[in-house]
Design goal:
By secondary structure, the protein is an all-alpha fold. The chain is built from ten helices and no strands. Helix 1 packs antiparallel against helix 2.
Length: 198
């Protein structure tokens, strides 16, 4: 129903998809262009935000988490990191849903892409959104530097998107679009790189 449609969440999803594409184009095709990777830092926190909303809004959590895990498995042969970011997003979702097992999910995140950093950053955003804005922002900033100063710190550029009221009327991102786009665009980029290097 249109009344329940969240333009802000939809806008953040689009920003996440576009910045992820720019990031992966930089990774696969233009590694010398650091600015593409900088822009791409917005994508991960955008997806963390989407997971927070998805975990809260889904009517069938079991189907929701199974879809994430299946996407992670399908993407394993394609993504540079075998235990790709989708597994981290699934663990983050589980840690929100079953908070008393947070330490278990945190430990499970160690070998996964973005690892402990990703889990803690997700919780910084979650805390900022659901409990205390200032504490969440402070924790999100601290975690960037605890894990070591790097280009990843540009992820903080995404925080104003979550705090503001950005509501651009864009085409609705189907809940299945990301499940197709994530492995497909990386597969295409890998094909292009392979073709260029032949």
């Amino acid at each position: 129903m249109e009344k329940s449609f969240d333009h802000k969440l939809n806008t953040i999803k689009w920003i996440g998809i576009i910045t992820m594409l720019i990031d992966h184009m930089g990774y696969f095709l233009f590694p010398q262009l650091l600015w593409m990777r900088v822009i791409g830092r917005i994508a991960f926190p955008g997806f963390l935000y989407g997971i927070i909303e998805g975990t809260k809004r889904t009517k069938n959590y079991k189907k929701y988490i199974v879809r994430l895990l299946i996407l992670g498995i399908i993407s394993m042969p394609i993504t540079p990191n075998t235990l790709n970011v989708i597994f981290l997003l699934a663990l983050f979702s589980l840690s929100i849903k079953y908070k008393k097992y947070f330490i278990v999910f945190l430990l499970l995140s160690i070998p996964v892409e973005y690892g402990v950093y990703g889990m803690l950053f997700g919780w910084g955003i979650y805390w900022m959104k659901e409990y205390n804005r200032d504490q969440g922002i402070l924790f999100s900033i601290i975690i960037q530097f605890i894990m070591g100063v790097s280009v990843q710190a540009f992820s903080l550029m995404a925080l104003p998107l979550f705090l503001g009221n950005i509501r651009i009327k864009l085409p609705k991102v189907s809940k299945y679009f990301f499940y197709v786009f994530y492995p497909l665009h990386q597969g295409i980029l890998i094909f292009i790189v392979t073709w260029i290097n032949q």
